[in-house]
């Protein structure tokens, strides 16, 4: 007598790459090499949603992957190749997720830009250049069409952006700054004109207006600047703050301080929330206009309240609680 033994071959995905790329505007094959005996049935998901490949003009399921016609950036994302077997004697399944990247030439993150920015000698300014591209593009900054040299600048580069930070030491640093963005599929460039502007006046009043258990409302005022256009007037403030413990821990280094920016467009209520109860904080303020920040005010010391306090940003919650009590 003969005894035939047979065992199923486990599902595997062979040399399937989990990151795949295709150029925008072309047809793409998301490769998925499913192995196993008996052969599994394969289905596809896109970002967790089932893809119907039956009678589809966009997707076609093939033996070695998913065929996608005329890919665009909207087709980028995670594709899950799911393999399943159901037989009279056993059932099993497995899956692999593939990240599909759509290669495309760079394009700006934001269409609107500030073609003119302002600074003053003795201040600092950040010039930003943000663009998407796949592969991630390179960023190059030029000043008056020449490379930027010297120690008065820093460039912070991310995958999809580069910020040029300038310490304005002299008037020769004003001029045209060009950002060039490039990858193998294309190039962009944008010019920001850096012009001299008036240094803002610092706050003339910086004091506590209201005290809460978990925050402060501040009274900050700066007089209107004379002989300055309306667009160059003060439009807001920056407040830097640290608890006395943080101040001691950082040896008085204000670069470790938290910061909160205020704009007059949001009204002239300057509230610092989410602080610790019964805690002493050191604070300083600076005025802001289009040319940058003023000198910092003298440091003030305020302490949050120890007891229960009505916080203005919690009024809606208090109203709801009272309504529930009275109903």
UniProtKB/TrEMBL annotation:
<protein>
    <submittedName>
        <fullName>IP08311p</fullName>
    </submittedName>
</protein>
<dbReference type="InterPro" id="IPR003961">
    <property type="entry name" value="FN3_dom"/>
</dbReference>
<dbReference type="InterPro" id="IPR013783">
    <property type="entry name" value="Ig-like_fold"/>
</dbReference>
<feature type="domain" description="Ig-like">
    <location>
        <begin position="9"/>
        <end position="97"/>
    </location>
</feature>
<keyword id="KW-0677">Repeat</keyword>
<dbReference type="InterPro" id="IPR007110">
    <property type="entry name" value="Ig-like_dom"/>
</dbReference>
<feature type="domain" description="Ig-like">
    <location>
        <begin position="106"/>
        <end position="183"/>
    </location>
</feature>
<dbReference type="InterPro" id="IPR003599">
    <property type="entry name" value="Ig_sub"/>
</dbReference>
<feature type="domain" description="Fibronectin type-III">
    <location>
        <begin position="202"/>
        <end position="307"/>
    </location>
</feature>
<dbReference type="GO" id="GO:0030154">
    <property type="term" value="P:cell differentiation"/>
</dbReference>
<keyword id="KW-1015">Disulfide bond</keyword>
<dbReference type="Pfam" id="PF07679">
    <property type="entry name" value="I-set"/>
</dbReference>
<dbReference type="InterPro" id="IPR036116">
    <property type="entry name" value="FN3_sf"/>
</dbReference>
<dbReference type="InterPro" id="IPR050958">
    <property type="entry name" value="Cell_Adh-Cytoskel_Orgn"/>
</dbReference>
<dbReference type="GO" id="GO:0009653">
    <property type="term" value="P:anatomical structure morphogenesis"/>
</dbReference>
<dbReference type="InterPro" id="IPR003598">
    <property type="entry name" value="Ig_sub2"/>
</dbReference>
<keyword id="KW-0393">Immunoglobulin domain</keyword>
<dbReference type="InterPro" id="IPR036179">
    <property type="entry name" value="Ig-like_dom_sf"/>
</dbReference>
<dbReference type="InterPro" id="IPR013098">
    <property type="entry name" value="Ig_I-set"/>
</dbReference>
């Amino acid at each position: 007598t003969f005894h035939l033994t047979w065992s199923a071959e486990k599902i595997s995905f062979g040399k399937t790459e989990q990151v795949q790329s295709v150029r925008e505007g072309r047809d793409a094959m998301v490769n998925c090499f499913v192995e196993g005996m008996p052969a599994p049935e394969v289905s596809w998901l896109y970002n967790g949603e089932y893809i119907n490949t039956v009678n589809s003009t966009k997707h076609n399921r093939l033996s070695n992957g998913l065929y996608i016609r005329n890919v665009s950036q909207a087709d980028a994302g995670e594709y899950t190749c799911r393999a399943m077997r159901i037989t009279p004697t056993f059932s099993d399944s497995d899956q692999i997720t593939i990240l599909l990247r759509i290669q495309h030439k760079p394009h700006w993150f934001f269409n609107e830009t500030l073609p003119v920015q302002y600074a003053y000698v003795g201040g600092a300014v950040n010039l930003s250049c943000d663009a998407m591209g796949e592969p991630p593009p390179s960023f190059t900054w030029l000043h008056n069409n020449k490379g930027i040299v010297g120690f008065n600048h820093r460039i912070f580069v991310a995958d999809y952006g580069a910020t040029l930070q300038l310490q304005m030491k002299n008037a020769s640093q004003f001029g045209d700054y060009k950002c060039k963005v490039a990858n193998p599929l294309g190039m962009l460039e944008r010019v920001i004109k850096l012009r001299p502007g008036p240094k803002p006046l610092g706050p003339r009043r910086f004091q506590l207006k209201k005290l809460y258990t978990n925050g402060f409302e501040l009274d900050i005022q700066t007089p209107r600047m004379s002989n300055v256009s309306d667009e160059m007037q003060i439009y807001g403030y920056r407040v830097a703050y640290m608890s006395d413990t943080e101040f001691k821990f950082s040896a008085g280094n204000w670069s470790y301080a938290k910061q909160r920016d205020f704009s007059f467009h949001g009204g002239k209520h300057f509230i610092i929330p989410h602080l610790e109860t019964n805690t002493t904080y050191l604070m300083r303020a600076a005025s802001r206009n289009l040319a940058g920040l003023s000198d910092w005010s003298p440091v003030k010391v305020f302490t949050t309240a120890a007891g229960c306090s009505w916080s203005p940003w919690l009024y809606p919650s208090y109203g709801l609680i009272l309504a529930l009590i009275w109903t």
